[in-house]
Fold Core-binding (CB) domain-containing protein.
Amino acid sequence: MKNRQIGNYTKKISKSGLGRILVFTGARQTGKTTLVKKLFPDYAYLSIEDPLTRADFTRLTAAQWHSLYPKAILDEIQKEPVLIESIKSVYDQFSEPRYVLLGSSQLLLMEKVRESLAGRCVIIEMFPLTLPEIKADEPDKTQLSLFQKILTDPVQKMDYLPSFNLDPEMAKKQAAYSHYCTFGGYPALTNPTLSDEQKYIWLSQYVRTYLERDIRDLASFRELEPFVILQRALAVQTAQTINASTLATQVGLSSKTVQRYIQYLNISYQTISLQAWSRNQTKKLTRAPKIHYLDHGVLSGILQKKGGMTGAEYESLFVAEIYKQIKTLNIQPMLYHLRIQGGREIDLLIELPEGYIAFEIKMSQRVSASDARHFSGLDEILDKPLLHSFVISNDVRTQQFPNGSNAINTAMFLG
């Protein structure tokens, strides 16, 4: 299996007093079960998905859990939320037992966790593979990307290679990047025995399973067609600012329904809503959020595409990878986009305690100083220092522009 960066944090926290109950959540097929089985080989594995055995577990007392399963992995725990109460009772009565709870529905799982396990558990989110994880050719070795190194010390001044061609790991990074741009980051698709056609079939089936299982678990739909229409409309408009009323008119749904469906996509780990930065009320800033799909392979599956990418899809691919790499480091910066009425725009703005990192995202093979023009004067708008500004593209050249921003190749920056 691919080494997951979140694994190091998981092992560390599991040995602390806070780690007696770990709650893993995330989209299906992101590798939750595989990871926890590897990290906790001495834990009993209990699948709650089987309705025949599910009832047996609900009848166990806290003392029986302590005796029979002092260490256990409970998979698909959202299928029987009453078991969370059982684990709470074991936690409160005994100090030795340790449990790992897995679930693929953030809403169904987290509502019960907040009710019963507040202050008793650590929540860990799992996402598809990041580029460093795809690139790693050794099961237990995953290096930090250049972006992640910047995050760990955001005020440092970095020296960048003058060209991606000089990167000693260029071939590995480019191979991982090419795979990611075509199929996304789901672990199953890194299997070298699968043909490209089999990978496309997997993505198509994933989209179908998501609709038939995850969304039906999440919301009691009488019919799925309205949700499918909205899902596809958002896929077509990925990386664009979204006005719920306008979108509602386009798809023939009410504004409230559109907002509810977007929430479903967010909490089921299919999309993220990138809020508009709006700290300075004296500026005329666009406040509509942008919707980004979290996996380009799934986006392609929804649109039934085989290869090819638009500029907007490229922007979503980059934002999603940034989001995942941040999550694997278990840090909590805020992510925004910024648009001033009149056309000036920053595609991605990351807020850290020390200041901001800004990105202009271009799919082109060649960039120039004009692509960095929106960074000029950005300090006058922001309420913290602008620590770094980057033009990210497929250009292999590393450049520094007069306004202090840097142009860096996407695969070199994120791989």
